[in-house]
Design brief:
Layout: H1 5-20, H2 29-58, E1 62-66, E2 70-73, H3 76-82, H4 86-95, H5 100-106, E3 110-112, H6 116-130, E4 135-140, E5 148-152, E6 155-159, E7 172-173, E8 179-183, E9 186-191, E10 197-202, E11 205-217, E12 224-233, H7 236-245, H8 252-260, H9 277-299, H10 308-311, E13 312-317, H11 324-333, H12 340-350, E14 351-354, E15 365-367, H13 368-374, H14 376-396, H15 401-407, E16 410-411, E17 414-416, H16 417-423, E18 427-430, H17 433-443, H18 445-450, E19 455-457, H19 464-470, H20 473-483, H21 486-489, H22 504-529, E20 538-543, H23 552-568, E21 577-582, H24 590-608, E22 616-620, H25 626-632, E23 638-641, H26 653-659, E24 663-666, H27 672-679, E25 685-686, H28 691-700, H29 705-711, H30 713-720, H31 736-742, H32 751-769, H33 772-786, H34 791-803
Parallel strand pairs: 1-4, 1-13, 4-12, 13-14, 14-18, 18-19, 20-21, 20-23, 21-22, 23-24, 24-25
Antiparallel strand pairs: 2-3, 5-6, 7-11, 8-11, 9-10, 11-12, 15-17, 16-17
Helix pairs in contact: 1-2, 1-4, 2-5, 6-34, 7-8, 9-11, 11-12, 11-14, 13-14, 20-22, 22-33, 23-24, 23-30, 26-33, 29-30
The structure holds ligand 26W.
Keywords: Carbohydrate metabolism, Glycosyltransferase, Pyridoxal phosphate, Transferase
Protein name: Alpha-1,4 glucan phosphorylase
Organism: Halobacillus naozhouensis
Length: 812
């Protein structure tokens, strides 16, 4: 489109005139961002059309990735990178008096996800497009994404995230592809003269699902896929009908709102399954709209329905979209007259499922009454699936009532979504080796015994284009200078860096790049919090959702311990440290919010204390997001991955930090285990209970936090500071509940059990940090092995082992 800076400047100026009606001289950053977005979009559209046309013509098998969350973050920078426009645009804008970095900041972060699961979906879309594997996303266009976090007096306060308040430049509304989604009512069962059963859904309420398509741009390969985000709307007719039905009981606007609220907001909780009616409504809204849309594109191919699984794979990201299974059954049986057996065959061979958590409280179950009331026909289908499944279990083991009760999809008045997902799909995968082993040997053992071939592992991955090439250009440049740029399209090639392991000049340069990134991070911290941090100190970073099992409390207690030592023990030596936290707590998660208050309190005390200036700072950065992660990760020295072993399914922040040269301080949990396997004992700092030990305690008891407290003076001194008079408690009961969680309720997450080990490992890492050459070498080893975690590789495994899809080369 433009081959030189001059061409870009001309096109951009023209775009400003035609879209905004301004000249460069008078344009604001907002104007410039919008015009640039529109310009880039023009370019994308050509490839988008081409990709769609080629797929229509060649009819390759395609995957549709269903997810309630897509945490895509900002797109401008990444789209420019993938379109190979970055440098021309950057230079052209500079000539016009704009900075690309500033324009990137104008874009609202699309926070359509909670954390790991949503970000994984976004990385996967990027990789599918970049390796040319035909695949698209289906999600919800929440009017409000993840809440904005403010700190008031050190407490988290949630505000709505109005990310759509400015027009979103990347989306295209496609009303012509809108579909209807039906809720409530009842089912009329009948029989045709030929003796076939019929099911007619009556007296339902309907919502119009309107798709907004966001292009997903592949890396320099002309491929553009679609992230289809559904928005709930009421038509004039629906509104009228409702207003009439509920006869004058309220005004029509209220009815309209109640239909549209379906896609209003993202549930900001990824730890506890909420069981809310509106959440179930959202899940069905996504599923029904998505399945109808997929069936439409399939039917345009004019093939027999039986070939559906040869052309289409439907993937469900955790159980949230599991209603894809009964919904596809409904569409095939009720609307296309297919037999149960044929429909089941098609459904099962098309659907695959990823599990992202073994935490019991996060597993979805819905009360029977709710499902039956909201989705009467789907409930009938789920009952039938359950009935047939239980019968098959009976045949395998007649009389084994216990086993059948434990495996049933419907039991104890609840519909168990994970059971439905396993039974109704052909593939179940965990997200790291350890996680998959735990699924097979414990959480899903009984299912594994029934369907051993169905279970596989697909360790998570991250897109190195966003998380290294784009966000850490100085490091990317250094790598390219050393080993050429093949690693950008073949991330495993990062391993070539190992040849530089003993190259002093290279290691030195690596240290300089890190230092430069730390300076940038320090400036960001200053800007946001007004705290000045020492860039020579070790940057110790803990960024992720706030959860008991992620153990931000362990980190906080350790800081309290260090502070106490620094104040009271003149011979205590410590490498200067800056502790950086960022984390959102679910609004209803009381414990997590207390931990935030504790961290902000510690920060206030420590940062204000002139005695320890130059030794320690504590920073809590409010409103963690994808774009904030992009600023923190390049400047990190130490990556805190300290979950209670067995609880973190995989983690992906661990991979991003490693890729940017941070050393992991972590438990043998999730993908940390695989990082350890790759880099070896010397380039990672592991500590704490193993997952077997934790699971053993969980099942057989035998852990007493009180005993640890009684026997270890450091534990006692530190924990007591929560409730006794201390600089942190100041005599208040503010942290009494945290104390109780540890001592009275026996420390569910083994914080105290791992405390001594954590202190020792922190000490070791502090010492090692001072051995600069060795440290840089370890950093290099981490970067070199991080290519293993590129999502391009992960997605190729999904493609060949689960979806059976092949790459397509888009030619323009
Ligand atoms: C129903 C409420 C709810 C919502 C979301 C429960 C649980 C979730 C997710 C499954 C939580 C999640 O994001 N899990 C994370 O998934 C990442 C990607 O696989 C993993 O890297 C993390 O370890 C896992 O915690």
């Amino acid at each position: 489109m433009f081959n030189s800076k001059e061409e870009f400047i001309q096109a951009f100026s023209e775009k400003l005139r035609t879209t905004i009606g301004k000249e460069v001289e008078t344009a604001t950053e907002q104007d410039a961002y919008r015009s640039l977005g529109a310009l880039v979009k023009d370019h994308i559209n050509k490839n988008w059309l081409q990709t769609n046309q080629q797929y229509e013509k060649e009819q390759p098998k395609q995957v549709y990735y269903f997810s309630m969350e897509f945490l895509i973050g900002r797109l401008l920078g990444n789209n420019l990178l993938n379109l190979q426009m970055l440098s021309i645009v950057r230079e052209g804008l500079t000539d016009l008096g704009f900075s690309l970095a500033d324009l990137e900041e104008v874009e609202n972060d699309a926070g359509l996800g909670n954390g790991g699961l949503g970000r994984l979906a976004a990385c996967f879309l990027d990789s599918l497009a970049s390796v040319g594997l035909p695949g698209h996303g289906h999600g919800i266009r929440y009017r409000y994404g993840m809440f904005d976090q403010k700190l008031i007096d050190g407490y988290q306060v949630e505000l709505p995230d109005p990310w759509l308040s400015e027009p979103y430049v990347w989306e295209v509304r496609r009303p012509e592809d809108a579909v209807e989604v039906r809720f409530g009512g009842y089912v009329d069962t009948g029989v045709t003269p030929e003796g076939q059963l019929t099911f007619e859904h009556k007296n339902y309420e309907q919502v119009r699902a309107v798709p907004y398509d966001v292009p997903v741009v592949g890396y320099q390969n002309e491929t553009v896929h679609t992230l289809r985000l559904w928005s709930a709307e009421a038509t004039q007719d629906d509104t009228l009908a409702l207003a009439y039905k509920q006869s004058m009981s309220g005004n029509y606007l209220t009815h309209k709102r109640s239909l549209e609220e379906t896609s209003d907001f993202l549930y900001p909780d990824d730890s506890h399954e909420e069981g809310k009616r509106l959440r179930l409504k959202q899940e069905y809204f996504l599923v029904s709209a998505g399945v109808q849309s997929v069936l439409r594109s399939f039917e345009r191919m004019e093939l027999p329905l039986s070939s559906f699984p040869e052309k289409i794979a439907l993937h469900i990201n955790d159980t949230h979209p599991v209603l894809v299974i009964p919904e596809l059954m409904r569409a095939l049986i009720d609307e296309r007259g297919m037999s149960w057996e044929d429909a089941w065959e098609i459904t099962q061979s098309s659907v695959s499922y990823t599990n992202h958590t073994t935490l019991r409280e996060a597993l979805e179950t819905w009360p029977i009454g709710l499902v039956r009331e909201l989705l009467p026909r789907l409930y009938m289908i789920i009952e039938e699936i359950n009935e047939r499944f239980c019968q098959s279990l009976w045949k395998q083991g007649p009389g084994d009532f216990d086993r059948i009760a434990q495996l049933a999809i419907i039991a104890d008045g609840q519909v168990k979504m994970a059971h439905l997902a396993i039974v109704g799909s052909h593939s179940v995968n965990g997200v790291a080796k350890l996680h998959t082993e735990i699924l097979k040997s414990r959480e899903m053992k009984k299912f594994y015994d029934v369907f051993p071939k169905r279970f596989t592992n697909k360790t998570n991955g991250i897109t190195h284009r966003r998380w290294l090439v784009h966000t850490n250009q100085p490091l990317a440049d250094q790598i390219t200078e050393a080993i050429g740029d093949h690693w950008i399209t073949q991330p495993e090639r990062l391993q070539d860096l190992l040849a530089k392991k003993d190259d002093s000049a290279f290691l030195d340069q690596l240290g300089k790049v890190k230092q430069q990134n730390k300076q940038q991070l320090a400036a960001f911290i200053k800007d946001v919090t007004d705290i000045t941090v020492d860039t020579q100190s070790m940057f110790d970073v803990h960024i992720k959702r706030l959860h008991g099992y992620k153990r931000q409390l362990l980190n906080a207690l350790h800081i309290m311990y260090l502070y106490h030592e620094l104040k009271s023990n003149p011979s205590f030596e410590m490498t200067p440290r800056t502790f950086i936290f960022a984390a959102k707590a679910a609004p209803s998660y009381y414990f997590a919010k207390k931990v935030i208050k504790l961290i902000t309190t510690i920060a206030d005390v420590v940062n204000d204390d002139s005695d320890i200036q130059g030794l320690m700072k504590v920073v809590f950065l409010p409103n963690y997001s994808v774009s904030m992660a992009e600023k923190i990760i390049p400047g990190t020295d130490v990556s805190e991955q300290i979950s209670t072993a067995s609880k973190e399914a995989s983690g992906t922040g661990n991979m991003k930090l490693m890729m940017n040269g941070a050393l992991t301080l972590g438990t043998m949990d999730g993908a940390n285990v695989e990082i350890h396997d790759l880099v070896g004992d010397d380039a990672i700092y592991t500590f704490g209970l193993s997952s077997e030990e934790v699971l053993h305690y969980a099942h057989h008891g035998g852990y007493s936090a009180r005993k640890v407290y009684d026997s270890d003076a450091r534990v006692r001194r530190t924990v007591d500071q929560l409730v006794h008079y201390s600089p942190f408690s100041k005599g208040s009961t503010e942290f009494q509940d945290l104390y109780d969680s540890l001592i009275t309720y026996n420390d569910e997450y083994f914080v105290l059990k791992d405390f001594a080990n954590y202190i020792a490992t922190q000490q070791r890492i502090g010492y090692d940090y001072l051995q600069k050459r060795d440290w840089n070498m370890k950093s290099l080893i981490n970067i070199a092995h991080s290519g293993k975690f590129a999502s391009d590789l992960t997605i190729q495994q999904y493609a060949s082992q689960i979806w059976n899809i092949q790459p397509v080369n888009i030619v323009r």
